[in-house]
Amino acid sequence: MRISNYQARLLLLLALALNVFAARVARAADATSADSASAVAAEVDRSLDARFSTATAPPVGLADDATFLRRAFLDLIGKLPTSNDVLAFSLDPSTDKRHQLVDTLLADPAFGENWARYWRDVILYRRTEERALFTRTAVTDYLSKQFNQNTSWAQVATAFMTATGNVREDGSTALIMAQSGKPEDVTAEVARIFLGIQIQCAQCHDHPTDRWKREQFHQLAAFFPRVAIRPDRSGAQPTFHVVVNDQPFRFRRRTNNNNRYRGTLEHHMPDLENPSAEGTLMQPVFFVSGKTLPTGTRDADRRGALAEWITAPSNPWFAKAYVNRIWSELVGEGFYEPIDDMGPERECSAPEALDYLADQFAKSGYDTKWLYRTIMATAAYQRQSRSRRDFDEEPFRANCPQRLRGDQLFDSLVAALDLETRIPPRARGRGGSRQARDPRTVFNLAFGYDPSDPRGEIGGSIQQALAIMNSPFINQGISARRQDGLGALLRDNPQDNDALVELYLKVMARGPTDKETQTCLDYIRQVGDRTEAFEDITWSLVNSTEFIHRN
Q1: pTM for this model (two decimals)
Q2: CA distance linking residue 21 with residue 92, whole number of Å
């Protein structure tokens, strides 16, 4: 009896399945951390079940192994599992193989790169200074290293708030550079990103829907007046430096909040009745705790104190902001929506669960890998996916599909179509290079989006459809006339059934259903040209809703 390539590989993987994941787990976290994550995950699930016990719609069941595998790969490392990954995971009889998989992916260097790109976009999408794009590579490299080393989130946040240096070389300068060093804009982003609070609505008047006062916004801005952005054209590439000025001006300047090349010693709240006036001198005060510094405090002490107060375990909003954001990315919906608009007057869908998870995150020392491990151990994460709920339905009854970010979609296409060797070296690096017109950069221009935006508001566009249809990079990848990619797959699998299975494993990270198999086989017979038919099938798969979403 003839054994197909697919069947032979299946038999080999069956023999190896018990060893594949055991070898990978050698790099995984220790059992104590895993046990802690599992215990906290179970408590979070109990809290959610208790809160929504009267829900009219019970939670859906857990996702199957193939769905969980693809979801975990895309969530943690931003890439598709290989065909061997799919088969080995499906054959692995271990009862804790999902936990093992998560630990393995957290140890993969691609974990840091994937989440560095996420936070790069969080910081740069709301830039007020276009030249902040100079920082793309540096901030991606910096964050990739921090996440892979599992640096405390408090340390990472502190670095962004206290940064100085060349923006092309020091990625921690990205947040300040993105806002051109303007105290008001930096203040707004620090509060939004690290506290989940949109205090910028109080810049010109008391916050209309929250308790924050105009004075509190400008007291927070008083931590940043001495920071400046200074151009530097002395090297091969133009760049900027985040610098500090603690020295008084030689000549007194009447209005001093906007000297962004030198900085100003103190921050003044503008007089709305007389904008040309100097305004009211503001003392640095942290609005959450009321802690203060005197005017005249040096910049390093100002920003250092603010970072310490923001990241302190006694400040609940720091842990909540990170937990809410990561929970939303993994489960599909945050405890607060939008994810960066939290606060005392905002409605939290499950406050007990969020408070508990944020408290445990703070107690872990803001251990980011521990948080991923914990959330992905919950039933809320592992459930089947369903469309976004209606307003009157209970949350967290299912996982929500997430549209892939530009980098994730690009890497998925590269893997599905065997395009790695066709990417210019510059495009393979972390975060792209100098805004070159390489495929990754072009792709991100079409498919990228602000990760802080509500996912229900992010959809497809004509520009994206045209980018797929007209991209030479992708059209070359779909061609069956190549020596590798689809061409090699068809040569290695002369039987259409076997070729379909291999194609689905490679592109969709699962085997085809019986209905899909029959539909494809009927189409191949109808076209009469095997090469053309498989090109059409491949094109339809990479353009499918399932491919461009993580389910």
Answers
A1: 0.92
A2: 8
